[in-house]
């Protein structure tokens, strides 16, 4: 049976309470005490992965080194723990059913009737325990998406119930996250939603070991006592999770509430040393006491839902702290930008980032934003589609190929400076078929990209079908757009930059996916540095 200890995090009352942040914070505390920890997310939706979901549905799609398209919570896990996740860290109902149906078609169930219990629940448990059986981890934290009581979550909750018996005493705990709402008119905190949520969990056969209560106000002792009494938990296992200024405060708040100590006691694990959080505290100190401030425009088409660009936002937080600078993000919908208003819209910004995305909506605005940054020498950073827009804009306005475009947006363009990748031409299935995951990139010595990374070989994560068309490479180089990063195996252009511009870089890959608290992504760090310098020059100029 699994050698690791297992912690299952469930949620009640409402979704989006922050199970991912609580899981990541607890993992951080246990890691800081010297334990080897990983976190996995089980999502109750039937999509096999979030790769085909619109960002408005589910926030950004987070890509791992091994090319899995996963839930954005995996981004939190990596940013907090500073260790990569993989294919195995995100499992959906779709994946579970897909595996079971495949086995059924292969005759593996020996003619038995295939049912939710035991076949689906057994498959879920197999996935629960998989990472713990590798011998790499002391503790596996499993976050169950959705809420207790959701129809789609039922098989997962049943599998958690069975897991307690499979794992045996001291190897399993359930942490249940709920909401303690504050009723303004009555002027009091209400415990009833939590009581109902725990009752529902008990009806499923699971007694929570620890309650984590999300709240806007501190929990007085009488409320804690009431919760302990009605929810059948120890009073010191009622943990307050108060709204924080930043998600990076949560590990320290959980430490103060002794969440890690409760977990170690219940799992009968030694309370090794005190958690070493010095570096984390240093980061928070820089984050909260900036010495300067910059305004950066994020030009995209999903700006109404900031979660669509979660990793970019967090990369700015890390890069800001590294530069002791507060980064204010201006959310600008590319559909609102045109030649006439661009000056008004972008003039207040010290740097411009053109965001990734798919499809032709909002492209003209993105091209205008690139042109504005290029002509006015404003620090520019283009990611994936943002880099492709930089290439298209340069072709149209500098090379004079006025009809140049990407074959994705304009299949009839005479100059497809961005074209579909050769191996993508025959693909009709949309899910999981892009160029995904980590690929190597070689940087040109003497280039801006080389000086940013300080080395000539890097590996970054990708998620795209279209690429720079090398037929036009020479023309671009002659005119001053340099391919400063190239994939050594395929010759695919990964990084472009402008010769005569203070800071103008576009990357085909997604550097934001590898930025963590302990290792801020160098391109973001240097982009913010360039924005600070630009602001200083403008103020003195």
Overview of this protein structure:
The protein is of the alpha/beta class and 541 residues long. The protein has a nine-stranded mixed beta sheet, with helices on both faces. The longest helix is centred in the C-terminal third of the chain and has 19 residues, at 522-540. The protein is built from 18 helices and 23 strands. 51% of the residues are buried. Helix 1 (19-32) packs parallel to helix 3 and helix 5 packs across helix 6.
In brief, what are we looking at here?
This protein is of the alpha/beta class. The protein contains 18 helices and 23 strands.
Chart the SSEs and their pairings.
Blueprint: E1 5-11, H1 19-32, E2 37-43, H2 55-58, E3 62-63, E4 69-70, H3 73-81, E5 90-92, H4 93-105, H5 116-130, E6 139-144, H6 154-167, E7 172-179, E8 182-183, E9 188-189, H7 192-203, E10 210-215, H8 221-231, E11 238-242, H9 250-256, H10 259-266, H11 278-288, E12 292-300, H12 310-322, E13 325-333, H13 342-346, E14 351-354, H14 363-375, E15 380-383, H15 385-397, E16 405-406, E17 416-420, E18 435-443, H16 448-453, E19 457-464, E20 466-468, H17 473-479, E21 481-486, E22 493-498, E23 504-507, H18 522-540
Parallel strand pairs: 1-6, 1-7, 2-5, 2-6, 7-10, 10-11, 12-13, 12-14, 14-15, 15-23, 16-17
Antiparallel strand pairs: 3-4, 8-9, 17-20, 18-19, 18-21, 21-22, 22-23
Helix pairs in contact: 1-3, 1-9, 4-5, 5-6, 11-12, 12-18, 14-15
């Amino acid at each position: 049976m699994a050698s690791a200890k297992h912690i299952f995090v469930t949620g009640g009352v409402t979704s989006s309470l922050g199970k991912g942040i609580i899981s990541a914070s607890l993992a951080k505390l246990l890691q800081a005490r010297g334990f080897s920890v990983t976190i996995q997310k089980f999502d109750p939706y039937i999509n096999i992965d979030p790769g085909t979901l619109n960002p408005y549905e589910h926030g950004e799609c987070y890509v791992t080194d091994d090319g899995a398209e996963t839930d954005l919570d995996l981004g939190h896990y990596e940013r907090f723990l500073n260790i990569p996740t993989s294919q195995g860290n995100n499992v959906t109902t779709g994946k579970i059913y897909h595996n079971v149906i495949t086995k059924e078609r292969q005759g593996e169930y020996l003619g038995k009737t295939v049912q939710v219990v035991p076949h689906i629940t057994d498959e879920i448990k197999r996935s629960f325990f998989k990472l713990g059986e590798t011998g790499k981890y002391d503790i596996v934290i499993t976050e169950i998406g959705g809420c207790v009581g959701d129809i789609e979550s039922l098989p997962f909750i049943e599998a958690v119930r069975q897991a307690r018996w499979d794992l045996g005493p001291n190897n399993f705990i359930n942490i249940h996250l709920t909401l303690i709402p504050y009723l303004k008119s009555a002027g009091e905190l209400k415990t009833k939603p939590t009581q109902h949520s725990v009752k529902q969990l008990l009806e499923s056969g699971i007694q929570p070991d620890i309650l984590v209560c999300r709240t806007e106000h501190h929990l007085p002792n009488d409320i804690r006592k009431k919760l302990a009494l009605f929810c059948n938990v120890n009073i010191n296992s009622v943990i307050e999770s108060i709204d924080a200024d930043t998600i990076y405060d949560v590990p320290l708040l959980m430490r103060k509430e002794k969440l890690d100590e409760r977990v170690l006691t219940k799992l009968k694990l030694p309370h090794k040393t005190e958690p070493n959080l010095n570096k984390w505290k240093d980061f928070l100190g820089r984050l909260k006491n900036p010495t300067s401030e910059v305004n950066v425009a994020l030009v995209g088409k999903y700006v109404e839902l900031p979660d669509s660009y979660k990793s970019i936002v967090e990369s700015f937080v890390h890069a800001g702290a590294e530069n002791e600078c507060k980064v204010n993000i201006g959310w600008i919908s590319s559909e609102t930008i045109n030649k006439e208003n661009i000056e008004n819209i972008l003039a207040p910004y010290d740097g411009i980032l053109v965001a990734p995305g798919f499809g032709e909506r909002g492209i003209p605005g993105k091209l205008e934003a690139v042109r504005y940054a290029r002509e006015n020498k404003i620090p520019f950073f283009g990611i994936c589609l943002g880099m492709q827009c930089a290439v298209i804009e340069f072709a149209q306005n500098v090379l004079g190929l006025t009809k140049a475009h990407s074959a994705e947006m304009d299949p009839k363009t005479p100059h497809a400076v961005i074209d579909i990748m050769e191996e993508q031409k025959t693909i009709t299935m949309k899910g999981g078929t892009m160029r995904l995951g980590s690929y190597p990139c070689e940087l040109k010595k003497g280039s801006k990209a080389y000086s940013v990374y300080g080395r000539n070989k890097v590996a970054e994560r990708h998620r795209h079908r279209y690429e720079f068309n090398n037929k036009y490479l020479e023309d671009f180089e002659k005119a001053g757009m340099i391919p400063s990063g190239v994939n050594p195996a395929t010759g695919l252009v990964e990084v472009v930059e402008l010769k005569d511009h203070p800071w103008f870089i576009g990357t085909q890959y997604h550097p934001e996916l590898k930025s963590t608290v302990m290792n801020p992504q160098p391109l973001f760090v240097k982009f913010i540095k360039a924005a600070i310098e630009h602001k200083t020059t403008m103020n003195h100029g």
